[in-house]
Amino acid sequence: MIGVDAGATSTRIAVHTLDGTRVGYARAGAGNPTAHGLDKAVAAVREALSAALAGHDGGQVVASLAGVAGHVPELTRELAKVWADHGVAEGPRCEGDLLIGYVAGSAEPDGALLLSGTGAAAARITGFRLDAVADALGWLLADAGSGFWIGRAAAMAVVDAFDRGLPVTALDDPADRLVPLVGRDFLGAERPDTPRAVASRVVRLAQAAPMRLATLAALVSRAAAAGDPMAVTIVEDAADRLAATLRRVHVSGPVVLAGSVLTSEGPVRAAVTARLPGVPVSTARDAAGAAAWLAARPLLAEDEAKALHGVFTGLGP
Amino acid sequence: MIGVDAGATSTRIAVHTLDGTRVGYARAGAGNPTAHGLDKAVAAVREALSAALAGHDGGQVVASLAGVAGHVPELTRELAKVWADHGVAEGPRCEGDLLIGYVAGSAEPDGALLLSGTGAAAARITGFRLDAVADALGWLLADAGSGFWIGRAAAMAVVDAFDRGLPVTALDDPADRLVPLVGRDFLGAERPDTPRAVASRVVRLAQAAPMRLATLAALVSRAAAAGDPMAVTIVEDAADRLAATLRRVHVSGPVVLAGSVLTSEGPVRAAVTARLPGVPVSTARDAAGAAAWLAARPLLAEDEAKALHGVFTGLGP
Question: Counting CB atoms within 10 angstroms of each CB, which of A220, A296, A312, B36 has the fewest?
Fold first, then answer.
């Protein structure tokens, strides 16, 4: 059984026997063919497959499945060639990464995924098929409640506070407040002369590397956990937006939380969970293992498949 | 008298006699040395100066003043060379474009500017000097209430409406509603198959050219004037933000409204004006003429200068 999790930042491949035992695992660079080009994505998968299959006979592989962010039609054919080069008769079935994210947290055929990482999305899953998607529309106009969205809100609040004249010394508040946490993340030991110079400097640094804003989400969580009102407001807004996105697709069944913002314990996860009373909520675990489990499922009895789900997905990297 | 308005999109130069008569006017490309580089900015000013001074004796120029977006220290020296090449003994004094924007709407030494064009800013003017600035901090994290901010809010609302399942046929609503106005601006005659495909397509087009979002502000005004509730909300939010930015700097005296969002009659201008009860509000007119007036002011008696303000600034291009 080969499971592939070809994501926007890395590719992970897990090799399992039919009873769930993990016999190989490897990671390589980004495997998103839309964002990084087909050739680069295929090369990353090839590298990970060679490492994960090392010492195993490819001819023994009976099923493979790849969860891919940004699927392109040519990918299935290209991956079949890579599999053939490793002595595996049949190439992997390709599925969206949102389905695999769901399966990484649930063995139920019907339910929903709620993801908040750099981006944000919700997906309805019906019979282990991706049935509907909400959001996942990018940071410029959407991805409401994502890490980027939370981090941008925090940077805006900090810039606004200094533009309104908050003293530069606020950067050195020893408490876990949003302003010093975010301000020091940008400025380090640098201390501009005036509040307005602080605002301008943070803006210039953010403009130079906008994706950096997503990393601020962890600081928002830390400040919110310490009771900072500005951070608490951002967290509550994010949870409202994520819950609204989920409501667009969720009909019944469990909700799987995925993405760094929702899989880590903290205020955002707590605020989202509080908005889902009576809904069974679980957390996405290993996605490569989940892909291997989904490949194995048709070969197992239903009860057996359910029983082994935790073995496949709980092994981690 | 030479007045220069060296802006982020174009450079305009006006040549006036001391009684306000305009004897030359020309425009050239962008003259912002920070955004476009010193060489390009100086070249644009040189081109405009040659055209505006054509047929005049540079030796007769007694004073010059340049309003410059994004001043850099070397600029004064470089412009002095350009002036010398045109036979003008003394190069222009350089001032910020926010001061010139204010002077384009007021002959009072103390007051404030509120600007909403592509960006947004407020400035306090004291004795015809730039005393304090609020916002002007860029579209990624600030410029609250700017054309970009308004257009982005509109695009977000439209993307969100389609992601929530608004039928594709809503694009063809003949009324001045926000959704069809903005949707058709992006898609033209193109009609994707599903609401979600509409949302994705608008997102992709906006990501390809983010600055295009600023041009949507005019459509928001049109929809708000026709009573579209989504557009009215965006306009009210923008006016709240602009009024808050102004309050950070405005102490006393008139408020000059500048920038395409505030100089054109319409819902944003009306909503902002409604938030300034009892404050004398005027509108920025010709900025190159305003720069020429500010250059002429020390050479005129105070009453005379006030009386001629409208002549200098009201002539337009």
Answer: B36
User: Can you tell me the distance from the alpha carbon of A162 to that of A264, in angstroms, rounded to the nearest whole number?
Assistant: 30
Do A9 and A148 share a domain, yes or no?
A: no
* Domain match, B8 and B90 both: yes
CB contact under 8 A, A200 and B137: yes
pLDDT in tens, B98-139: 999 999 999 999 999 999 999 999 999 999 999 999 999 999
Q: Which residue, B109, B138, B279, B238, is CA-closest to A163?
A: B138
Distance of alpha carbon B20 from alpha carbon B292, whole angstroms: 9
Predicted confidence (pLDDT) at residue A317 exceeds the cutoff of 70: no
Average pLDDT for A244-256: 97
**Are residue B250 and residue B138 in the same domain, yes or no?**
yes
> Are the beta carbons of B141 and A202 separated by less than 8 Å?
yes
| CB-nearest partner of A248 from B133, B152, B164 | B164
A142 in reach of chain B (CB within 8 A): yes
A18-37 pLDDT, tens digit each:
999 999 999 999 988 888 88
* Contact across the interface for B206 and A140, Cβ inside 8 Å: yes
Query: Is pLDDT at B179 greater than 80 in this prediction?
Result: yes
Strands in B129-135's sheet, in edge-to-edge order, are B129-135, B120-126, B111-116, B255-258, B281-283
The reply to whether A164 touches chain B by the CB within 8 Å rule is: yes
pLDDT band at A310 (very low <50, low <70, confident <90, very high): very high
Chain A contact probe: residue of B131, B139, B141 with most A CBs at under 10 A: B141
Q: What is the pLDDT of residue B293?
A: 98
- Whole-number pLDDT of residue A82: 97
Question: With 0-12 CB in 10 A as exposed, 13-18 as middle and 19+ as buried, what is B68?
Answer: buried
| Chain B residues in contact with A140 (beta carbon < 8 A) | 152, 203, 206-207, 210
- Cβ pair A248:B156 closer than 8 A: no
Asked if the Cβ–Cβ distance from A207 to B152 is below 8 Å, we say no
Q: Does residue A229 share a domain with residue A128?
A: yes
Instruction: Give the mutation candidate from A140, A212, A213 for the B interface (greatest B CB count, under 10 A).
Output: A140
pLDDT tier at B317, thresholds 50, 70, 90 = low
- Return the residue of B nearest to A152 by Cα: B141
**Helices A178-187 and A229-247, axial angle in degrees (round to 10):** 90
> Are A276 and A163 contained in the same domain?
yes
Could you give the number of structural domains in chain B?
Answer: 2
By Cβ distance, the residue of B160, B165, B207 closest to A138 is B207
CATH of the domain at B249: 3.30.420.40
Touching check for A131 and chain B: CB below 8 Å? Answer: no
The predicted-structure confidence for B257-266, as pLDDT tens digits, reads as follows: 999 999 999 9
Measure the CA dihedral B144/B146/B151/B152, to 10°.
-30
Instruction: Find the mean pLDDT for residues B193-198.
Output: 97
For B141, which of A142, A159, A196 is closest by C-beta distance? A159
Q: Do A142 and B135 lie within an 8 Å CB cutoff?
A: no
Q: State which residues form the domain around A316.
A: 1-104+285-317
